[in-house]
Write a structure and sequence with these properties.
Strand content: 25-35%
CATH topology of the domain at 63-200: Rossmann fold
Helix content: 25-40%
Largest sheet: 7 strands, mixed
Number of helices: 6
CATH architecture of the domain at 63-200: 3-Layer(aba) Sandwich
Length: 210
């Protein structure tokens, strides 16, 4: 279930779907996704599918993780990235191998605790995490070069735009279930520019902490 052949098949599939960044593909191949899902589902970890991870949440399919990461980093290297919605910790683990510093926030305390143990297990020391309402971001640590959301708000969160540097990029799903679109937001001096990329399906962004 964790053989190199299995991982190679996943990478081949990502290439077929248009993911071209060699660094991102190498990180996806080498990151042990089976550690980020329940043991009962570990045999499916390298399928290109979203999987349940408890708390009514899912781990995104590898294509979406790779695609969002590629869009975020397509303008060049980033020093600091904020992730809203830690979930299993998989997206943060991928980012941590590609940027200098990752900040990640999660509203569900049980999820952030599990993710933190995985970061420690993998020796990922450039990830800072906090139990926070994701919609407000982590203003004390901003501004950020990039922001990535793993849950879908109805509208672009202004509080997060304000935590981007001018020239920074935010990648997020946007909209209600079954009508969501992946959107790239670029902060410019006069506001933001947006670009719709493709249709996606994420859990909704929920306010508050549990």
């Amino acid at each position: 279930m964790t053989s190199q052949r299995t991982r190679n098949r996943l990478i081949d599939r990502l290439r077929e779907q248009g993911v071209n960044d060699a660094r991102i593909l190498e990180v996806i191949k080498s990151t042990p996704r089976h550690l980020f899902v329940d043991e009962a589902l570990a045999h499916r970890a390298y399928e290109d599918k979203a999987l349940p991870i408890g708390f009514n949440q899912t781990i995104s399919q590898p294509y979406i993780v790779a695609r969002m990461t590629e869009v975020l980093l397509s303008a060049g290297q980033m020093s600091s990235v904020l992730e809203v919605g830690t979930g299993s910790g998989y997206q943060a683990a991928v980012l941590a191998q590609l940027v200098e510093k990752v900040y990640t926030v999660e509203r569900i305390s049980g999820m952030i605790e599990r993710a933190a143990s995985r970061f420690k297990m993998l020796g990922l020391r450039n990830i800072s995490y906090r139990h926070l309402d994701g919609g407000i971001g982590w203003p004390e640590r901003g501004p950020f070069d990039g922001i990535i959301l793993t849950a879908s708000p109805m509208h672009i969160p202004e509080a997060l735009v304000e935590q981007l540097v001018v020239g920074g990029r935010m990648v997020l799903p946007l909209g209600i279930e079954n009508t969501q679109e992946l959107v790239l937001v670029k902060r410019i001096t006069t506001g933001v520019e947006t670009e719709v990329l493709e249709k996606v399906n994420f859990v909704p962004l929920v306010s508050g902490k549990t």
